Amino acid sequence: MSGGSFYFRDNPAFTGGSPQAIYEELWERGRRQRLIQRGIIAGVCLVLAGKLLSPAWGALVALLAAGADAAYHSWRRATLSVWRRGQRGEQRTARVLRFTLEWRGYRVLHGRSVRGQGNADHLVIGPTGVWVVGNQAWDPETEFAVYGGRLFIGKDSGSRTAVQLQRMSDVIAELLSGQLQTDIRVSPLLIAHGGRLPRRGLTGSGITLLRVYRLPGRILRHGAGQGDKDGALLTAEQIDAVTQAAIHQLPIRDHIVAVR
After folding, report:
1. How far apart are CA 201 and CA 204, in angstroms?
2. What is the predicted pLDDT for the residue at 139?
3. Using one digit for the tens of pLDDT, what is the confidence trace for 4-26?
4. How many CB atoms are located within 10 Å of the residue 132 CB?
5. What are residue 133's phi and psi, to 5 degrees?
6. Theoretical Cys-Cys bridge with 131: which of 5, 122, 124, 159, CB 3.0 to 4.6 Å?
7. What CA–CA distance (Å, rounded) separates 194 from 142?
8. Distance, CA of 196 to CA of 139 (rounded, Å)
9. Rounded distance, CA 140 to CA 247, Å?
10. Residue 137, strand partner residues
């Protein structure tokens, strides 16, 4: 896997295979190379730490280095698990929301139908505001960038994806505001599963693109310095009212992904 793309389009051995299948095949083929590299790393650490400290410390550092290398490759493969399975990432994001935000007083509605706009993966309602969260899985070679305020996904502009999610958030805001007779703002967030995204994410074309592990922090920090003395934009009563309005205005889609 090291040193290049796994898309060998000119290699007849991979003709007809899906990108996910090709990835799995090349991951297995690269097992021996990864083990050799891990052994070299451990050996170098053993020699250097053994000379600088002691043989016992050398063995310990070698074990730690080998473990760190194994953990890195395991994490790298796990980050692409959604894409490899041909999924979009709803289940993974739902689990993160459940274990990080719901117990803090946030309400999360999954798989809601938005009239004329399709389906909203997740609607998050809490003290710091309201968000519509979408998911999309990309292959590991996809690069994300922002030029002149516009989001680019690979070689193409991501404006279509951004416009769809932004329009959905506007429609949801309009529906909730009409139901409650007050101004409700809904912010769009797009979770990228896979691809080469900067660690802090990107904001362009009106939406924010980020990794799922950064989603809770993004939502929790949103109201800092903007709301009451506790940093809240919505009270508990307002959260309940917005949630009930969302349940009324946004029915559950026909085929909702189960949350495990």
Report:
1. 10
2. 77
3. 444 444 454 444 456 566 566 66
4. 28
5. -115, 125
6. 124
7. 8
8. 9
9. 36
10. 193
Amino acid at 172: I
Percent of the chain with pLDDT over 70: 76
Query: Distance (Å, rounded) from C-alpha 123 to C-alpha 246?
Result: 9
164-211, pLDDT tens digit by residue?
Answer: 999 999 999 999 999 999 999 999 999 998 888 898 899 988 889 999
Instruction: Pick the closest to residue 191 from 73, 72, 76, 95 (CA basis).
Output: 95
**Which token pair is 55?**
């043989």
Q: How much of the chain, in percent, has pLDDT values that exceed 90?
A: 43
189 bridge partner residues = 133, 208
CB contact at 8 A, 100 and 94: no
- Please report where in the chains the tokens 């999954």 appear, as a residue: 110
Residue 21: both structure tokens together: 């299948």
Mean of all residue pLDDT scores within the chain:
81
Q: Which two tokens stand for residue 128?
A: 């710091």
Query: In this structure, what token pair is assigned to residue 98?
Result: 């459940």
Cα distances (angstroms) measured from residue 15 to each of 8, 21, 22, 163: 9, 11, 9, 35
The Cα–Cα gap between 63 and 234 comes to 50
CA distance 78 to 193: 10
Cβ proximity of 70 and 174 under 8 Å: no
Tell the residue number behind the tokens 């698990």, with chain if given: 81
Euclidean distance between CA atoms 139 and 116, whole angstroms: 29
